[in-house]
User: Fold this.
Amino acid sequence: MKIPKIQYREINLNGTSYEWTLLRRLSKLGALMAMGRRTEAIAVLGKEVIQPRGLVGQAIDSIDSSGYELKQVLGVLAEAGDYPVYFHCTQGKDRTGLVACLLLLILEIPLDVISVDYLASQEELAPERESRIQELRAMGLSDDFADCSPSWVMDIHGHITETYGSVSGYFDRIGVDEALRDKIRSNMLENPTADS
Assistant:
């Protein structure tokens, strides 16, 4: 159901590029999909590809392969006319957590504050944890995929700086240049040019 007079931008963060990143790691998945055994294929993908990578690996795969989609999301945040903006995913901690983390990095929020913000999702997800665990197990994933990893933000930041040289280097690489980042800061911060 869509609310009238609301502009929707449906951006699949884990779209085709991300899917191909996962598929390159697993050759037998194609055979299962070709035989119409999608549910079994998803469980194999979860168990043999996503599970070994963990939550951090999943985010790193998104960072490395979904630059186009991340640029689209951040582009929406750069347009003042698009506010208010609401973004989400299934649990609100993985893909949404990644977008929120990247946004907070653009806003130059300290890493420890970003980490506290991310970990706050753990308590909010508690009421649905048991039902989420059943879904995760059916996909071949362990219970920890229902939780927030305490080192997630620091690990993501570490990957970005190690792989791309800096946070700015990563954003420049995916086409979110300084001018676009300045627009986001202008939209999100009360006084974006003042020194803190």
